[in-house]
Amino acid sequence: METQGTGRPAPERPPKEWYGELAGVAATALALGVGELVAAATGGPSAPLVAVGGVAVDAAPTPVKEFAVAVFYTYDKLALQAGIVLVLAAFAAFIGLLAIRRLRYGLAGVAVFGAIGVLASATRASATWAYPLPSVVGALAAAGLLVLLRRTLPRRAAVAAQDLGDDTSPGDTDVAAQGERTPVQGARSPSSDVDADVSVVDGAGQPPGRRRFLVLAVGAIGAAAVAVPGGRRLWAQRVAAARAAVVLPSPSSPAPPLPAEASAGVPGVKPFVTSTADFYRIDTALTVPQMEPKDWRLRIHGRVKRPLTLTYEQLLARPMVERYITLACVSNEVGGELVGNARWLGVPIKDLLDEVQPDGGADQVVSRSVDGYTAGTPTAALRDGRDALLAVGMNGEPLPVEHGFPVRMVVPGLYGYVSATKWLTELELSRFSDFSAYWVRRGYAAQAPVKTQSRIDTPAAGKRLAPGPVMVAGVAWAQHRGVSAVEVRVDDGPWQQATLATVPSVDTWRQWSWPWQATSGQHRLQVRATDNTGQVQPGQARKPLPDGATGWHTIKVTVT
Ligand SMILES: Nc1nc2c(c(=O)[nH]1)N[C@H]1C(S)=C(S)[C@@H](COP(=O)(O)O)O[C@H]1N2
Ligand SMILES: [Mo]
């Protein structure tokens, strides 16, 4: 361009907005990357992205969450993270734009960003003094990079913005490249670079900073792209190693040996014990909370005479019971798979409550997780003698991280959202009239005993079958009441008694089977269960909100 050739001083004009946006995104990316690394060294949930994400999830209205669960099923976490990253990028670009106008506005934007991170992490349930650290260090790094980028920013432009356009010749020089070579080389090298207009020598005749700017900005983004997953992996590896080192005590009260008859022996029915790999997972955690047992504390407090704090070691030293207990999610639709049965090892919650001595009015136990999730369980359900556990083991292994390592609750007979808090850190004796837990605030019932349900596992819905004998089979559950009968009907025929498999207790699901002589044609199969109180599962079809779906699982099959 001619300015370059004549050495005429370039007129000052604001750099292209593009630079500002890139600077903002780079600075923010660096903050997140640095934040993750600092968090990996000091404590997982304190990373700014995790903390802010957690607050965003908690703040999202129920319909948004339901939509996310409906659209993405249990894989909604990735979509939410992507959404958060997009919103962050927009904010970041804005901060960068401010920064190129007036540096101090941009720095103020970074400070606001940092403050949001500090607030979000400091208000996490598990927060310690170290929690704000990743946000603070991240914000400082971002501010530093912003200052540096702004200094590097090619500020003097040879061509006024309005001179740009179609007349920009393909021979326009890439001045950044030119800075590293001779002007002659630069002038000769054709460049399609449309940003050449802003990249010219600065007042001191130094090579323009365009290349340096890009290297710094893109480098910071690249470093963040490595540091964010890298920091998380480091921390997760530490926790995985700590989990592998856990030696579970043997139970003083072991689970009864499983009779072979717990299985109906029909292929296609979900196994009586759900393998840990196949166990459903439901939680609001954007990233699985990673907690080391050595950092774990359980605080039992609130309306109690003697508050208590337990370490993981102290918990493991207590007498352990081992039980098969079937867990069900309130969001499970009729016929759905958000239900599973595992062998849990843990400490009876009743004993701990007896020790802290709740006052008479404390009708609710509020459990909190390390990421701030809460559930409210009737104190009575935890003290009535059922096997309500602080579980440390699942199917013979330390609790998997996704299922609440190091400690979670498991309470027979109640839906997970009112009882099965994972990554547990706190039990607060409270009252239902004083506190509404996470899902209760979002429209779900405060009291949520599991509803009697039954499911046809085989034949599969829509299946084509040959006429003749067909085993119809599945599972039924009514935790803590127990299943006393299962009936099947074909089309609108009479209800027929299914054969029930045996169960170790009333707290698990029960397999059932019914031999059908299938005749040609389209048929509708339905199932219903009766619990040990004599209540027959209601047929009225209702959605999970607010306290669990009802209706009979119905499938259609074609026999030809
Ligand atoms: N910390 C935490 N615990 C939680 C939840 C959660 O979102 N966060 N979800 C609850 C719900 S709704 C259910 S159904 C069970 C599911 O337990 P699982 O993922 O081990 O199957 O966990 C419960 N515990
Ligand atoms: Mo759930």
Question: How would you explain this protein's 3D organization?
Answer:
With 560 residues, this protein is an alpha+beta fold. Helices cover 33% and strands 20% of the residues. It has 3 domains: 212 residues, no CATH class; 183 residues, Alpha-Beta Complex (Sulfite Oxidase, Chain A, domain 2); 107 residues, Sandwich (Immunoglobulin-like). It contains 13 helices and 19 strands. The strands form 4 sheets. It has a 5-stranded mixed β-sheet with strand order 2-1-10-5-6. Strands 3, 4, 7, 8 and 9 form a 5-stranded antiparallel β-sheet that branches. It has a 5-stranded mixed β-sheet with strand order 12-19-18-14-15, with no helix packed on it. The structure holds the ligand Nc1nc2c(c(=O)[nH]1)N[C@H]1C(S)=C(S)[C@@H](COP(=O)(O)O)O[C@H]1N2 and molybdenum atom. The site of the ligand Nc1nc2c(c(=O)[nH]1)N[C@H]1C(S)=C(S)[C@@H](COP(=O)(O)O)O[C@H]1N2 has 18 residues, from loops. Keywords: Membrane, Transmembrane, Transmembrane helix. Pfam families: Big_7, Oxidored_molyb. GO terms for molecular function: heme binding; molybdopterin cofactor binding; sulfite oxidase activity. This is Molybdopterin-binding oxidoreductase.
